[in-house]
Amino acid sequence: MQGGYTPTNGQPRQIPIIQSTTFKYDTSDEMAKLFDLESSGHFYSRLQNPICDLVAAKIARLEGGTAGMLTSSGQSTSFFALFNLCQAGDHIVSPSSIYDGTYNLISVTMAKMEIAATFVSPDQELDAVFQPNTKAVFGETIANPALTVLSIARFADAAHRHGVPLIVDNTFATPVNCRPIHRGADIVIHSTTKYIDGHGGTVGDAIGDGGKFDWMAHADKFPGLTTPDESYHGITYTERFGLGSAFITKATAQLMRDLGCSQSPISAYMINLGLESLHMRMARHCENGQAVTEFLAGHPKVAYVDYCSLPGDPYHALASKYLPNGSCGVVGFGVQDGREEAKAFMGHLKMAAIETHVADARTCCLHPASTTHRQMNNDQPAAAGVKPEMVRMSCGLEGKADLIADIAQALDKI
Ligand SMILES: *Cc1c(COP(=O)(O)O)cnc(C)c1O
Questions:
Q1: N or C terminus of the chain with fewer C-beta within 10 Å?
Q2: End-to-end CA separation in angstroms for the chain
Q3: Ligand 1 pocket check: which of 194, 328, 360 to mutate, most ligand atoms within 8 Å of Cβ?
């Protein structure tokens, strides 16, 4: 919780916001060293800013990683994590039940860059889907909104057998409930917009590198890391920065330089505030998620409940292994009789608001089939784990009795 920033005598106790685009140097030669990555420091906030670096370091430390960076949103981070390894002609493996924004990013936008993907079902045998040009395996610890749990060890083992890293989106579990790097993942990403900020106030993201994946052992697959970068005076990232920070340095020096999805200092400050209470809030989100699920599971107007911490859930065994202290506050459930009843139920809720958001301090809910998954067609929503009658409810920090009373009165009205 206190990682990242350690004030010395007389320094501010809270992390200082350095709201400055640029930094002053006495000589051009000193600045040249920064441009050459020969000394560390700041020169322009599109690339690096002191508070963003400190908050990224805190997240990397919470995850057990060696280096980290913030970006302006979860979407940019998913792209950075993958594009730092892939180029036109390459291939990615991912479960189909991932966040719809990431699914679109990979299947539509990255496809336009000629980066292909194979989407697998969570339980599928993996070896057969790898190709010589596969560069990364991607997955979500707890998928949004399908709430499937990733078998991190199985995906990591398959990735490593084929010489590529496993990237895990740990947004829903947070490092409080799961640390994927300790379970075999190589790179962890977060939409800090969700539980880490936790108050519906700040869009953002972070990448943490576990520093374990041996890029040099698979040097032919990752030339961007293992051969000279001509756009950086011939630096070879693995040689200069080692396994611990080659990945993040390349993502900062190259992708942030060219694409510029940098986080703002004030947003980094907000994210840090969230991090300081994350462990307390996660416990409460999980307690509420569990109580709401138990109530829903016994209700005659509820067809099914998806919550991996509930015994009997298909992902309960994986949750017991990877999420022994709780999963998250997001619950999925089917309203009996279908799509229209699900929407009617939501309309009757008084406390839980209808929002395109999760992981807020205030309870919110969404009908994925008519919103986030509306643009999908044919079999795509089912492959993403979305059914017409499904409601995704993100249990906030309110009292659980109030929350259950609100759900009960709304179910009574349909
Ligand atoms: C919300 C979300 C994202 C995207 O994050 P943004 O900050 O909204 O860009 C990525 N992955 C998961 C699991 C999410 O829930």
A1: N
A2: 44
A3: 194
